Amino acid sequence: MDKLSPITLAATGCTLIVTSVAVYKVFFSGSKDSSTASKEVVEEVEDTRPKLNIYFGSQTGTAEGLCRVVEREGKERGFNCEVIDLEDWEEDSHEEFIKNAKKAACNVFLMATYGEGEPTDNASQFIKLLKSETDDFEFPHTVFGLGNTQYEFYNAMGKLLDKKLSGEKLVPYGEGDDDKNLEEDFENWKDGVFWDGIGGLAGPSEESNAKPENANKVVWGKSAPTPTPNPSTKFYFDAKSSTITVNREILADTSKGANSTKHIEVTLPKGMKYNTADNAGILPHNPKALVNSLIAHLGFDGSATFSLSGSGEYKSIFPTPSTVHSTLTKYVDLLAPPRRSDLKLLAKYAPEGLSKDMLVRLSSKEGKQEYEDKILKSYVGIATLLTKKCTDIKLSFEDLINVAPRLQPRYYTISSSSSVHPKSLHMTVAVTKGVNSESGDKYVGVCSGHLAETSECDMFVKESSFKLPSDSTPIIMVGPGTGIAPMRALMQERVNRKAKGRNVLFFGCRKKNEDWLYREEMEEWVDKGNMELHLAFSREQKEKVYVQNVMENKGELIKDLVANQGAWVYVCGATRMGADVVKALKFVVGDAKVKDMQDKGELIQELWA
Ligand SMILES: Cc1cc2nc3c(=O)[nH]c(=O)nc-3n(C[C@H](O)[C@H](O)[C@H](O)COP(=O)(O)O)c2cc1C
């Protein structure tokens, strides 16, 4: 069966229903062949419910998770819902998707923006098609964009879709800002605009208190075959176990404000390659103690092996066979605070009582403040919720993997050149540490904490936007803090290639003797005439000085390099710094030149909020 078959069926308005009601069993008494003594006749039953297609463009799972909320509520409102990963919408399948969309009562797109105003990986082919074949995209629709105002191209993908899709716009475009409260923005749009606008297409809402059917079924034992990977969690299937050979602290002084920054070198597993300054995707592991306490609390057998299955042409959410312990370590996000919609779902699994009341309250509009105090600010993940706060909820293992969010990979820009280090890759990892404001417990970031302690990690490589120009073209690199990672890689590459173009680095940190990363390497490049270095120590003097301030002071140099010599500019680090750097660049070379560089790919930024 090709991967579009379920959609093709749905598009005809018919669904194959294989339930105890719709399946007719025919018994042949006295049959010669005992294997055919019982035969199932599967009848095609017309699904008369209005079709609601729910598409997601998602990089880190938020849009996908919100699609599941729309799906659950849509079913309760009498829609025939289908959640569609935009990864599947490509040139070959385009016609089928258009047909399916035209037949639906509504097509809702939840679209995140990634990179610098770019599509998420799973939506890149779809966006390419949308940009090239505009006439075709005509069907009833609405769009909700997921973005973050800290980025220059806020919600670029949501806005693009809203502009390019034609056909009836059933409800106005909505968008959410992850810098503030994206879930609240989404709820306001969903409850105040979306259902109001399309609710009339189906019956009135009938909110169900029953727990939904699990889409991912656990089959205990080792024998079940490994099904096709689900594209939204393909990274679990692509990752390979890699050995960490170097794990070294590179902060000169860890006793002050800065926590810990590790220089990590990983041996490339067989068959894995990278290009200079690509991204390393790391699959974090949940802390052992947390996994063990959850297993003990819920009474699971950690060593039990299982596989997954599901209806239709099932696509597995993680590789199986797996054990309970390994699954809770690698695939289930036990630490991240659940969204309010997750709590609402979890309430359906709770027995009548205090926990259920609390979950219903926290997930309601009135409970917003309590949710922020008790869950978000206190950083309560699903493991703590189940073992300490709602101890009467005894989820089965199958329920748990269906309710809990998936553990997402974390991306680090590789800090080595692939031509200098073809057999290993380097990462520069700031270890996130803090103290829980409510409990006073210390916590460590799930991925950086894992990397800081382990001698092995599950890893894959993803292309980044960092590309070098010709060897004679000058480059300007702006990489304060761990934003130095790709700049170190680019420098290694340029020196190895004996590139003639000038290399100019703007680096910033708090203090010279505290957190100047890779100081010896930088000084060596400067001594050998490979690099010009401009430093910004923010706390060495009374006035704070940042890289953007130093750039403005060096305006003449930058202007000459960019305007007269065609220099490329690279920026890596926090979004706020990135915005200030672009502002400084505009101040020095003018808005039009910066726009031109962006269009030509000569201003390359990788920023995180
Ligand atoms: C590396 C990175 C780049 C991003 N770039 C943008 C951007 O250019 N514009 C924007 O509005 N939001 C941007 N965002 C914010 C995401 O779109 C937002 O957090 C969204 O909720 C993520 O949804 P997802 O989890 O479904 O991928 C970026 C986020 C990350 C991590």
From TrEMBL:
Family matches, as Pfam families: FAD_binding_1, Flavodoxin_1, NAD_binding_1
GO MF term (any one): FMN binding
Domain Flavodoxin-like intervals: 52-194
EC top class, as a word: oxidoreductase
Gene3D superfamilies: 3.40.50.360, NADPH-cytochrome p450 Reductase, Chain A, domain 3 (1.20.990.10), Nucleotide-binding domain of ferredoxin-NADP reductase (FNR) module (3.40.50.80), Translation factors (2.40.30.10)
Cofactor (UniProt): FAD; FMN
An annotated GO cellular component: cytosol
Domain FAD-binding FR-type: 237-487
Keyword annotations of the record: FAD, Flavoprotein, FMN, NADP, Oxidoreductase
Enzyme Commission number(s) of this protein: 1.6.2.4
Domain of life: Eukaryota
The name this protein goes by in its record: NADPH--hemoprotein reductase
Organism annotation: Triparma laevis f. longispina
Taxonomic lineage from the root: Eukaryota, Sar, Stramenopiles, Ochrophyta, Bolidophyceae
